[in-house]
């Protein structure tokens, strides 16, 4: 989720007459909550691999969309989807081998203690279900999140998404803690992360609130993209477990090999989460999500509450999910994320030595946060960041921004991203930065 999405007011856009007509139609039919990326929204009609094509045939390098994890319209995924759709699509209350095949394959990618798979249609649904399980199993209600996190769009997950609803939208029984910012104040927030989690737990207890979970995005994607010290992360997990809560790893953005050191972001810290949630990349664009959980956490939940989602884990979704996992393994995309990610980071850090505005480059695999600064003027830095994003769009490369100050370039390309793509990204960013 980008926090810098423009309003797309017609007066503020240089869109063509055809695209202006589409914007007017969107506003009339969809209302004001639907916003498009960029001052001049891109009218996309086709995608292939790391490329997107607009209605006039112009090609854009996609350096942002993790939804199409193994590349836009991957032939193997499309074949799996269409083949199963032409055979059968129904729900999980009928017996089906393919959903069991998929569950086995997906569970085979995580530690053995995560023994059950529960399927949803979105990452928001997955996080919503995880919170329900955590509250039921722990007997608590309070969830700890970072102070600019984003975890979904349901009532429960939106209330745990200060990036979307603001700090005032977080209910009083939950707690926010400072994200482990490794850049500002010499990384003090990162150093103190576990201490801050412990303080949040104590504050809950003082208010007679029982902790249920610590809900973490392994890349702190909306907070500004950080990769803190592993020992501090493990200590934070220990704190919540000692208080009777559980650890939920939200892998919607950091999972499926994106960080280049294995399939899952939580493993980079040596964490053993009690629940793992996923969405978006799980289906390369097909609406899917999943919850992988310790069996003991759902034994009581299953018998007392139960769970059913009509199209969560349907045969078409299962076929797509299997294909995505096979592509990641068969095409060596985790190793590609590691190798090309390191090369891309090198190019971005070279820019940092030449462009004073680049304050910090953070990366793991194919996930990058490039923090732009302006001599302490946060408003100016945010304005410049927005201008850089817009300039790159005009120059044929799609990225976005994130962070509470809106001054971090968010770069998160599909996993088949190659060295020549990295070079185009860096060259385009260099041109965009040269305007400042």
Strand content: 15-25%
- The 3D shape can be described as globular
User: Total strand count, please?
Assistant: 15
- Would you tell me the overall average pLDDT? 95
Instruction: Describe the sheet with the most strands.
Output: 7 strands, mixed
Helical segment count: 14
The CATH topology label of one domain is: Aspartate Aminotransferase, domain 2
Class by alpha and beta content: alpha/beta
- What is the strand arrangement across the widest sheet? 4-10-9-8-7-5-6
CATH superfamily of one domain: Type I PLP-dependent aspartate aminotransferase-like (Major domain)
> What would you say the CATH architecture of one domain is?
3-Layer(aba) Sandwich
Search tags:
single chain; 436 residues; Aspartate Aminotransferase, domain 2; seven-stranded mixed β-sheet; four-stranded mixed β-sheet; 14 helices; 39% helix; globular
Structure description:
The chain has helices at 17-30, 75-85, 97-107, 123-138, 155-158, 162-165, 188-191, 193-206, 230-242, 295-304, 315-330, 333-354, 378-394, 419-433; strands spanning 44-48, 51-54, 59-62, 116-120, 142-146, 175-177, 211-217, 246-250, 275-279, 289-293, 358-364, 367-372, 397-398, 400-402, 408-411. By secondary structure, it is α/β, with parallel strands linked by helices. It has a domain at 75-330: Type I PLP-dependent aspartate aminotransferase-like (Major domain) (Aspartate Aminotransferase, domain 2). Strands 4-10-9-8-7-5-6 form a seven-stranded mixed beta sheet, with helices on both faces. The chain has a four-stranded mixed beta sheet with strand order 1-2-3-13. Strands 11-12-15-14 form a four-stranded antiparallel beta sheet. A hairpin with a 5-residue loop joins strand 14 (400-402) and strand 15 (408-411). The longest helix has 22 residues, at 333-354. The chain is globular and about 60 Å long.
């Amino acid at each position: 989720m980008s926090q810098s999405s423009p309003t797309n007011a017609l007066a503020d856009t240089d869109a063509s007459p055809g695209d202006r007509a589409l914007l007017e139609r969107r506003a009339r039919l969809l209302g004001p909550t639907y916003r498009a990326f960029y001052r001049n929204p891109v009218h996309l009609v086709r995608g292939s691999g790391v490329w997107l094509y607009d209605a006039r045939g112009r090609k854009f390098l996609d350096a942002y969309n993790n939804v199409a994890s193994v590349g836009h319209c991957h032939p193997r995924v499309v074949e799996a989807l269409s083949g199963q759709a032409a055979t059968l699509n129904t729900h999980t209350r009928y017996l089906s081998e393919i959903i069991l095949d998929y569950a086995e394959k997906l569970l085979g990618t995580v530690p053995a203690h995560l023994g059950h798979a529960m399927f949803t249609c979105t990452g928001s649904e997955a996080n919503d279900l995880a919170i329900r399980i955590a509250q039921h199993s722990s007997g608590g209600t309070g969830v700890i999140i970072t102070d600019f996190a984003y975890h979904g769009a349901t009532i429960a997950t939106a209330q745990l998404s200060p990036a979307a609803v603001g700090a005032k939208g977080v209910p009083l029984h939950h707690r926010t803690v400072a994200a482990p910012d490794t850049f500002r104040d010499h990384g003090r927030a990162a150093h103190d992360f576990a201490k801050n989690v412990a303080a949040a737990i104590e504050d809950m207890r003082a208010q007679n609130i029982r902790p249920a979970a610590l809900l973490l995005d392994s890349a702190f994607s909306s907070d500004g993209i950080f990769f803190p010290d592993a020992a501090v992360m493990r200590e934070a997990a220990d704190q919540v477990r000692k208080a009777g809560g559980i650890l939920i790893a939200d892998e919607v953005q950091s999972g499926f090999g994106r960080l280049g050191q294995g399939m899952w972001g939580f493993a980079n810290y040596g964490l053993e989460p009690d629940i793992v949630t996923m969405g978006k990349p799980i289906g390369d664009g097909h609406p899917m999500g999943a919850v992988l959980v310790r069996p003991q956490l759902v034994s009581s939940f299953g018998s007392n509450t139960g769970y059913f989602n009509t199209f969560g884990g349907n045969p078409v979704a299962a076929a797509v999910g299997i294909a995505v996992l096979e592509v990641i393994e068969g095409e060596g995309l985790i190793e590609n994320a590691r190798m090309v990610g390191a090369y891309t980071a090198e190019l971005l850090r070279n820019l940092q030595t030449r462009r004073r505005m680049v304050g910090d480059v953070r990366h793991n695999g194919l996930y990058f946060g490039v923090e732009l600064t302006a001599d302490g003027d946060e408003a100016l830095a945010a304005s410049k960041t927005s201008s850089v994003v817009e300039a790159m769009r005009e120059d044929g490369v799609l990225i976005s921004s994130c962070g509470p100050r809106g001054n971090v370039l968010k770069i998160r390309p599909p996993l088949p991203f190659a060295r020549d793509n990295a070079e185009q990204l860096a060259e385009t960013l260099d041109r965009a930065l040269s305007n400042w």
